[in-house]
Model the fold of this input.
Amino acid sequence: MKTDIILAWGEEFLIKQLILPIRLAGAHDEHLDRGCRSKPKFCIETRFGLTALFIVCQDCSAFEVVI
Ligand SMILES: [Zn+2]
Done:
């Protein structure tokens, strides 16, 4: 039981502290590479029964799953 809690915390920590910043930076760069200069927004939404982080840009209508 104790191990489960530590593992769960560890996973959340990994995603929030390590994976997420890399994924955000990557998504941001990919968006820039497409030639769009405006700043995309990130939002958490539930689509198709899955909660995910999306990158959204109103200028080029980009809408992609980040994580
Ligand atoms: Zn854009």
Remarks:
- The radius of gyration is 15 Å.
